[in-house]
Design goal:
It holds the Pfam family EF-hand_SWAP70_N. The chain is an alpha+beta fold. The chain is built from 14 helices and nine strands.
Length: 428
């Protein structure tokens, strides 16, 4: 299913390039030509009868992609076998069809940084890293990933400022991603990557293209010990997840052999001997292959790459970069969930803080209200106390009546109440 999805991305460009009126439909004659070409480049036996029967009806009008998809799935994609066709030839057919209709190099670009061959490689890498929905777009995170890969291949430090500037100037790219034509335009104009030498860029792009598009885990020269003559010969090795091929030279014209890889292979370093250093071997179920790397660092890189290939075989995975892409996607989704939870928690905390603040304000208001009531009561009590003292004085005066015309004082000059009432005390 991964193979069919991968093929469909390029076929989508070929189909839409035939849709001249941008109405989502293509003439049947054009679809017949497209189908014939796909049969050829995918190395599938032609079935002209099925082709004619599928498009045979009373309507001679154009066919939408929905009408073409059943035929495409049944008679083309379902019959494709991985490794039975040249992947680059297939993508080149789709690229040539869409490039003629859609690619317009901007002024100042015209091959200075990106040649047409470079653009084809970028087109293939774009499809590899694009999202799995149509129309195809590549999100900024994947653009950054690719730019970092090319920078590393050029042996230069990644400078993220050009991409940051572009994203700050064009919000749509940040939110919606970019189409392959926008991507190629920015690449050619140097708005994604600082490049001082176009030749160095092409070499670096070629390295990344082999690694990601052709699924090459590692390639380079090593010495290999023969199984018949037991002598050492220098070979150019190309490591992929399922095998490691070796050639007479890096032009790949004279293939000398192939080492099959599976989950049971063992990769290990071995002691120096026969005048060779930095040795290691690959043990398969049938043979043991001995190699000599250029130096210790190269031996470590080769053994690690071979162990990665063995791991992929054990996990039934055919591509390291498909695995890495899936991991990046999972990490982005996880980060998005964490940001959402953090934002939700932050809103909850803010709401809680607001609630606490409201409670504190209400408590303060109630405290002030209680204090006001207390002060009011105290004031009333103070006034009541004054009134009570006043009435006590008045009451005391009322309790000491004075007879008309009489003012009698007792001992110490005080008023004597008994005498004041004219009562005479009798003694004895």
């Amino acid at each position: 299913m991964e193979l069919q999805s991968e093929l469909l991305k390029s076929i989508w460009y070929a189909f839409t390039s035939l849709d001249m009126e941008k109405c989502g439909k293509v003439s049947k004659s054009q679809l017949k030509v497209l189908s014939h070409n796909l049969y050829t480049v995918l190395n599938i036996p032609h079935d002209p009868v099925a082709l004619e029967e599928h498009f045979q009806d009373d309507d001679d009008g154009p066919v939408s992609k929905h009408g073409y998809m059943p035929y495409l799935n049944k008679y083309i994609l379902a019959k494709v076998k991985e490794g039975a066709y040249d992947k680059e030839t297939f993508d080149d057919l789709c690229w040539m069809m869409t490039m003629k209709k859609n690619y317009r190099p901007t002024s100042g670009q015209g091959g200075l940084l990106c040649s047409l061959r470079d653009c084809f490689k970028l087109f293939c890498l774009f499809n590899l890293l694009s999202e799995d929905h149509y129309p195809l777009i590549m999100i900024p995170q994947e653009v950054e990933y690719l730019m970092k890969k090319i920078s590393t291949a050029m042996n230069q430090e990644w400078d993220g400022k050009p991409l940051e500037d572009l994203l700050s100037q064009d919000a749509s790219v940040q939110e919606e991603g970019m189409s392959v034509w926008v991507f190629l335009d920015h690449m050619g104009a140097g708005r994604l990557l600082r490049v001082s030498n176009a030749g160095a860029f092409s070499l670096a792009l070629d390295q990344v293209f082999f690694e990601m598009y052709h699924n090459v885990l590692k390639r380079g020269y090593m010495w290999k010990k023969g199984h018949v003559r037991r002598n050492w010969m220098e070979r150019w090795f190309v490591l992929r997840p399922s095998f490691m091929a070796y050639y007479a030279s890096e032009d790949l014209k004279d293939k000398k052999g192939e080492i099959p890889l599976d989950q049971y292979c063992v990769v290990e370093a071995i002691p120096d001997r026969d005048g060779k250093r930095c040795l290691f071997c690959v043990k398969t179920t049938s043979k043991t292959y001995e190699m000599s790397a250029a130096d210790q660092r190269q031996r470590v890189e080769w053994t690690q790459a071979l162990q990665t290939a063995v791991r992929l075989q054990g996990e039934r995975k055919s591509s390291l970069h498909q695995e890495l892409k899936l991991k990046r996607q999972v990490q982005r989704e996880q980060s998005q969930r964490e940001r959402s939870l953090s934002a939700s928690s932050s809103r909850g905390n803010q709401s809680e803080e607001h609630t606490i603040q409201d409670l504190e304000k209400e408590k303060e208001r109630q405290g002030q209200e209680i204090e006001s009531i207390i002060q009011e009561v105290q004031e009333k009590l103070r006034k009541a106390s004054i009134h009570v003292r006043h009435w006590n004085v008045q009451l005391n005066r009322l309790m000491k009546p004075i007879a008309p015309g009489e003012r009698t004082t007792g001992t110490g000059g005080g008023f004597h109440p008994v005498r004041a009432w004219g009562i005479v005390m009798c003694h004895g």
